[in-house]
Amino acid sequence: MDFDNNNLSQNKMLNEFDIFKDFLQQKNLRWTPQRKMILEIFLSFDGHVDIESLHQKIQEQDPSLGIATLYRTLKILVDCELVEAHSFHDGKKSYERKFRVQHHDHLICTQCEKTIEFEHALIEKYQIEICEEYGFTLKSHKMELMGVCENCRKE
Amino acid sequence: MDFDNNNLSQNKMLNEFDIFKDFLQQKNLRWTPQRKMILEIFLSFDGHVDIESLHQKIQEQDPSLGIATLYRTLKILVDCELVEAHSFHDGKKSYERKFRVQHHDHLICTQCEKTIEFEHALIEKYQIEICEEYGFTLKSHKMELMGVCENCRKE
DNA sequence: GTAGTTGCAAACGATTTGCAATGTC
DNA sequence: GACATTGCAAATCGTTTGCAACTAC
């Protein structure tokens, strides 16, 4: 019993693909092989990906998939909050998986742009305290530490 | 006594212009009216400035000053650490005065965009610890807490 | 069948660069 | 006088858009 109506309704087994499909449906957009492939390949990366690497890997599987489609799809993924976009100084953007990933802060090398993710429980605690002090309800935060990594310092 | 050799050598009364001039000299670059004007107008802004506003205000004083010169000069100012560049999602950059400005973090209301500046000594301490742990030399940081302020919550 | 989607190429906008004339040291 | 700098226009680069053919629903 309760056999076929058990997935979406329970909100338990939702994965990125289901969320994406739902979002598309809601907005009257279509679930296409290209969108599926882009999400698949995006998820196969860890951490931050830039368009270039993404496009390159996609080309290996389907050389006909145009870069315009990639940009368009990433925009939708950002809209539906599965992906987060970041901007860098060279004018390029990088994209980061957002769903089911613990929140973390970033340590960024200003020379090579190597990015390390970290968490710090105490800092998060103080953030809440600061907010309370000013009468704010904390929704989210962003912390970026800019520095020079070991390798770059050697040069 | 000790009358004319008292400025640069004591490193006391150094202002942005002296620093810029020194830097130019060191690198075998020239101190030009354009560079002077760009620094002047840059400093006349508070906080973040984008190229567009900067260029606009410069045009009022000297319509012949080309945008290429502005970009080139800002690059030098970033090099000599008087200015910091930030990238935004729209692909534009913004520039921030870096010298003799106290660092602060931001608490931002996501509804009315009210912004409060704050500092927290302990958080800064932990930031340094984290960097050391990963072999980074900390240069700067950015922390933004996004939340809802009292006023907006009441609505 | 109707709308959304795709790939392509052209367009775009911010930033950079080559160059001849000019200015600084 | 040597060499950096300027303004201009053209080039560049990442990203976006218009469009005709195509595809999901």
Structure characteristics:
homodimer, 155 residues, Arc Repressor Mutant, subunit A, Dna Ligase, domain 1, 2 domains, 41% helix, disordered N terminus, DNA-binding
Fold and architecture overview:
The structure is a homodimer of 155-residue chains. In chain A, strands 1-3-2 form a three-stranded antiparallel beta sheet. Chain A is an alpha+beta fold and 155 residues long. Chain A folds into two domains: 5-97, Winged helix-like DNA-binding domain superfamily/Winged helix DNA-binding domain (Arc Repressor Mutant, subunit A), CATH 1.10.10; 105-154, Ferric-uptake regulator, C-terminal dimerisarion domain (Dna Ligase, domain 1). The radius of gyration of chain A is 19 Å and the shape is flat. In chain A, helix 2 crosses helix 4 (67-79). The termini of chain A are far apart. Helix content of chain A is 41%, strand content 22%. Chains A and B meet through helix 5 and strand 6 of A and helix 5 and strand 6 of B. The first copy, chain A, binds a DNA duplex (25 and 25 nucleotides) through residues 28-32, 34-35, 51, 64-69, 71-72, 90-93.
